[in-house]
């Protein structure tokens, strides 16, 4: 009887502790699924969704601060299920992660109005993947939102501007594979924005940022128009251009003007042969504060390309009087393999430290 009593007491304590724990995560790991389980459907998917429903119902009336759904292992998640989960969690949530199955063609429409200030929501971090985000004027104020991470999210140029204009506390912004944005405009209202990362947005043609205090800018994709306004605070730039553009020449010519206080620079480009620019054109540009320089060169095995690329390196070194660290990644490949290079992590390049 004593053992039974102890077990009952512990069970009550654990139940009470779990029901009031501020974080809930639903993923393959927390649901005890094997790594081999992908694109789950049928009865197994129904059972998993019921388990999530039961867990959310047990937390009914108890606010959750951090809620994470990583449901990439399912074939499809009904919109009504997601709506029920978010309805139950919305009042007190501060951090929300919602990653839905990539094969789901329905493209769940995220309920922007549910997490707006008008409904008393205080969400500070929003991470969305594989859904649609369509804010509406008058019901999309996110005054407490500090961090945004969108990947494969359907949001247009106009909708993104509306969203940013009503998220004045935003500090960290990441956009990946958001293919409906043609021009990314960052309004000057975002006084606190210090980190901007944009990658693989196929329709994107320009980035126009008027934010006064960005310190970090990362970009991956084809060459587009960049406008950073008065970027005196910009100290960290990471740019990967693909394919076939003279990125090193562009960076050496433009970045000292765009970011005069730049301290850290990473550049990756394929096929830097282009037209041959005389070394003398680089001499008047200076990176007066650059301390860390990392360059990744991917190009065909051609004599012209070899000489041009290394002339650029000399120019960079001559223009960086306070440089402390220089890392060079070099990989020469055949032309027909060029398109595949950018699917490999950067750390697979052979490294030469100079």
TrEMBL record:
<dbReference type="InterPro" id="IPR055357">
    <property type="entry name" value="LRR_At1g61320_AtMIF1"/>
</dbReference>
<dbReference type="InterPro" id="IPR053772">
    <property type="entry name" value="At1g61320/At1g61330-like"/>
</dbReference>
<dbReference type="Pfam" id="PF23622">
    <property type="entry name" value="LRR_At1g61320_AtMIF1"/>
</dbReference>
<protein>
    <recommendedName>
        <fullName>At1g61320/AtMIF1 LRR domain-containing protein</fullName>
    </recommendedName>
</protein>
<dbReference type="InterPro" id="IPR032675">
    <property type="entry name" value="LRR_dom_sf"/>
</dbReference>
<feature type="domain" description="At1g61320/AtMIF1 LRR">
    <location>
        <begin position="56"/>
        <end position="337"/>
    </location>
</feature>
